[in-house]
Amino acid sequence: MKEIKICLPPYKMICAFFFIFILALVRGISAVDEIGPTIDTYIALLTLVLCADTCYQEIPGGAWEILAIKPGKIQRRTIMRRFAVQFVFLIWVAAAGYGMFYLVQHPYIAGKEPNRFLTAMAATAASIVMFEAVPVFFTKVTGSLWGSVGASAVLWFFLISSNAVKLPAFLQIFAFGGSTMEAGDMSWLSGKAAALVIGAVCIWAVGDFGRHTVRKKKERV
């Protein structure tokens, strides 16, 4: 597929798996239950870095001019395909990272491990949706790729900090596996639901290539 070559060049795939391998090496865990929250948190960071240029890649070379004259429906379809390709890839990276922790750190395997894995992947999927869309939206608004990565990283740092616990429960995006959670506590679901909503709103707000490129075109005139 054309979109795979565009939004997932080899260097991105290599960097993603290298990142998850290093994470498994340096991020110590004391229990199996810590793997899922760790994957959830750090895959979100990887996502915002890899996906910020989803609608920006054609800008430097001027190829955006061809995309911008296509019907809006086709442009939006192209963007959605890119989001989908990146989402599937990042879920695979998350799953590989989960297994990497077992291979590298050899934690004790308790019962119900398939349930832990599936729950972790579901939580991570919501984080991917949000942090795949937010930096793209910031890029469209600011016209700056690195500015959007920086702004998204600041948001990520805040949401994983101790200050995030002061937010309403539905805004605690990374509450999954938090230190205050008890076994069977599902309160983290509200944060993941909010992540999906935020991601969907940002994807809708991104619109098409044209909205992003008007500013660029005017700057060249």
Task: Give a quick precis of the structure.
The chain has 221 residues and is an all-alpha fold. It contains nine helices and no strands. The two termini are 35 Å apart.
If you had to describe this structure to a student in words, what would you say it looks like?
- By secondary structure, the chain is mostly helical.
- The protein has one domain (2-220).
- Helices cover 70% and strands 0% of the residues.
- It has nine helices and no strands.
- It has helices spanning 2-7, 10-26, 35-51, 64-68, 72-105, 113-142, 145-160, 189-206, 209-220.
- Helix 2 packs parallel to helix 5.
- It is globular and about 55 Å long.
- It starts with a helix and ends with a helix.
- The model is unreliable at 212-221 (pLDDT under 50).
**Structural class label:** mainly alpha
Q: Number of DSSP strands?
A: 0
Distance between the termini: 35 Å
Taken in chain order, the helices and strands follow as: HHHHHHHHH
Calculate Rg over CA atoms. Answer: 18 Å
Report low-confidence residues grouped into runs of 5 or more. 212-221
Into how many domains do the coordinates divide? 1
Q: How is the main sheet built?
A: none
Strand content: under 5%
Number of helices: 9
Mean pLDDT over all positions: 82
The helix fraction, in percent, is: over 70%
Shape: globular
